[in-house]
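Render this sequence as a predicted structure.
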Amino acid sequence: MRSFYRFTTAWPRLVIALFAVLALFSALCWTRVSVNYNVTDYLPDDTPSTLAIDKLGEEFTGGIPNMRVMVRNVTLSQALELKEQIKAVPGVESVTWLDDAVDVLEPLEFQDTDTVETYYKDGVALFTVTVADDYRLTAVDAIREIAGDDAAMTGDAVSTALATTGTVSEVRLITIVAVLFVLFVLTLTTTSWAEPFIVLLGIGVATVLNGGTNLIFGEISFVTNAAGSVLQLACTLDYSVFLIQRFSECLEENSNPREAMVEALCRSTMSIMSSGLTTVIGFLALVFMRFGLGPDLGTALAKGIAISLVTVFIFSPSLILVTYKLMQKSAHRLFMPSFEGFGRFIYRVMIPMLCVFAVIMVPSFLASNSNSYYYGSAHIYGSDTQYGQDTEAIESVFGKSDTWVAMVPKDDIARQSELSAALHEIPEVTSILSYVDTVGPEIPMEYLDENTLSLLVGENYSRFVITVDSDAEGGAAFATVERVRGVLENIYPGEYYLAGDGVSTYDLMDTITADTVKVNLIAIGAVFVVLLFSFKSLSLPIILVLSIETAIWINMAIPYFRDTTVFYISYLIVSSIQLGATVDYAILFADRYMEFRRQMPKREAVIKTVSAVTLSVSTSGSAIIVVGLLLGFVSHHGIISQLGFFLGIGGLLSLMIVLFVLPGFLYVCDGLVRRSTLHANFHNPKEVTAHEEK
């Protein structure tokens, strides 16, 4: 490695110029990366609801209804006029209202009350709208203008449009505040006014390179777009800080900046590379999820960490060497105090803290696996948002409702009538639009005009639009999905398709819950293997992984004790992210402990290690904590917000365990670590005394 570092530091200005060109090109590519805000788009291709959506697109021009619009104080004629105006909006594929279910020319009191009140009640009209994916932004705005300020709108099309417009501004604000905070922290923890800007420039180049290379994916998810850049900033900050600290140490031994930099790179390679590899592996574990959001986030973040490692080992050393004189001229005293006193304090409390750790470990593990979950997007926006208030307004008048589409072979009208009767017997089914329900089985298809027929009957399938009195997810909703699928399977075994928000959420639950154990085991196992080879120890990987995993369990147990419902997507993703992002602190601590332990007894080694690493891990840890809490407080998107809170609190817990518990863990297991580590060469006073006597 030394010869490689000598080569890369030989032409620092050339290296900087090369990275500048790559960063400029990546910045241009970044603007062309599109973002997907629809959670259900990431379901595996072979799930029943995904297959149903694909088949529906082949058979009918109108997709699954994805929007509900409630307009107050309208007569029947005004509602019919509004329906036509909404249908005329570009991107609107279909609008369903009362006139599609009953004959509105006849008095409503003679019609089926449940059917009428599904669409019209006390002068309030509820339209069910299908908007094409590519037109969600413009169509939602246009429909809101038509419906008026007093109208209420909900559904996937509305939430996706809201996420698209809102997340962009939120990400911008989060990034600005995160950068300013990191700049402030670096100013406190470095000894030069120039160092914070040098560190941020290195991280910024890596972030731009990662953002631009996301173009190879064509499209990224809203989670990756919102959290990717700030997570890369927070997760890789310690690499640059640790390199600069090592460089300062090496300068005291060798006044030649280039030679000192080569030595610093050689000494820090193992720690930085181990930290980077474990972070990459933690993120890559998400690739093994069948739910596409995991691979999307995992590959983008793993690529970002890998790019950051390349930047730290090649670009940052060149940047530091070119700006070395500026760093000297702008030198200032360290604003942070010495942590020697803190090290002695930790030595006094570490055994009691280790006992507390041992007591809460098992309950935290059990509680972390006992949470209640949201699986889909129905509860993404809370009651403090416009979307949440609109949802509550619609449900207060018409109740909870979801619209599903079933497709069955069109040839057997008798079986379709049997299906309709069986579906109507399900209490949650409030309305059905189909050929046999709307037109009647006694009227031949050839008697209908093409426009009416095309809405109900395709080339091979008849369509049943089923309105259910149910939320899009939850125990009752999932039971209704199973009941409707049971009826369809009984009458059309293996011949039917069923799609809709609730149906997709049911399949989403099936998919991502099956991913949990697999992803966690892969992440833990892979990190363990990396640590095994890095430390050449059997015990250290167990100690380090168990420490961070316990922090994850405590983090995930908090919602259980607070009786808070968790977005399962956030829960699944954050487990891998917290392991990958914060195991670095444990690695750095263990690496320095082993270094000091070769020179001194374990008591002094613990105190010295805490004194040496507290500043480094606190710098990186505070970045993770603040970035996470920023995501939590600023974002109105439930999944992103909850993911942020998990990251912020999880980062704090990992940091606390590394500083307060890990010292005691290593102290108590010192003999085990010595015996299970290859070439440990721990300090032994007896051997030193014997050598001196000779």
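Summary. The CA atoms of residues 120 and 126 lie 6 Å apart. The radius of gyration is 30 Å.
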